[in-house]
Amino acid sequence: MLAKRIIPCLDIKDGRTVKGVNFVGLRDAGDPVELGKLYSQQGADELVFLDITATVDKRKTLSDLVKKIAKNINIPFTVGGGIRSVEDANVLLQSGADKISVNSAAVRDPQLINGLAENFGSQFVVVAIDAKLFEGEWKVHLNGGRIPTELNLLDWAKECESRGAGEILFTSMNNDGTKKGFENEMLAKLSNQLSIPIIASGGAGSMEHFYDVFTEGKADAGLAASIFHFKEIEILDLKRYLNKKGIPVRV
Amino acid sequence: MKVAIIDYNAGNVQSVKFALERLGLNGILTNNSEEILSADKVIFPGVGEANSTMKHLRKLGLEKVIPNLKQPVLGVCLGMQLMCSHSEENDTDCLNIIPQKVIRFRPNSQEIKVPHVGWNKILVKNDSWISENISEEYVYFVHSYFVEVGDFTIATTDYVQPFSAALQKDNFYATQFHPEKSGSVGEQILKNFLNIKQIKTT
Fold this sequence. Notes:
With about 250 residues, chain A is of the alpha/beta class.
């Protein structure tokens, strides 16, 4: 049976992990490669590296980092942040990325999804969508949630699928940072209406939340950042817990 | 040991090279037939779409080279599918090394997603090339098409229906999953391939 995936997400700035990371025993907790390696040893199924660098040198720094990650880590990883063209993506592919994720750039230029899928295959293309429930409707937001659009989440997700996205990474802005659980209702809707895998993000605070997102939310994967970084939940414990509750996971 | 990794515009070949480096081997990325012919082992990776990838192979003249290789050859993912006779993906005639067909997953329920992405279990035939220190393990898959279970299947996985997770015919070995991305289990499987003794063919 296909296992449900647990995916830690690492924010990267200028080649370093940002947002507090609280790890004892790591020589350098700011080194994304070391942290990624540790997570993979603890049983993470995939890793997501999100580059939030805003400087001009960004691309070179990122491709160097991707190369280092690919050399050292033996599980799949996705790289996102500022990919605007097929050429941007190609550099990352050549550096060893397994998947890339696009977000705002895909909304601004939906044809980008087609271009990426045609050039590299759908398996390479994750479309990340940040959305917020406002007055009864889920609206897609851009630039890390700062800019609202009129785009409806479900419509946009379906369009991404038809343009060749291989997976959807949905972050509920209403849940993000609350630690009150994932947005299971919307996730289940996405999962039922799309035929590609859905990665759930935003709201993880306990092990039970992961159980809920895989049952009620019908997600294929659960992504979280701070609860792993601050060791509130250890990946191995989480997987043992899910396994005991009958959720297929790789342990 | 000289390991050639066939580089033919088919996705993430770097990660195969890096995986070999982690095992202490320096693989050579190449589409040069002499280089491929002189290698002790050949890895034929690939992700992407079957039809355009076959076209790339033909353009490079590799469609004649690969089926005639005598050393152990490992096809990975699309590489494995292209070793078969025919793929349903855009009605593509493949290399016809292993007489099996590649077809698309057709789930009978909305709950089951295509592509098949993530970690799934393989059931390995005893005494096959893959089975040293490997029995029932999770490995990483990402694909929408699969090879049916047949005479050359040496490991199966269940998704929608049982399918071939690994194959072998003579000196041609193949995995549908990505050993280079399957953690320590994947490393063991790569080692098992690299440890295969040269097969004498007449």
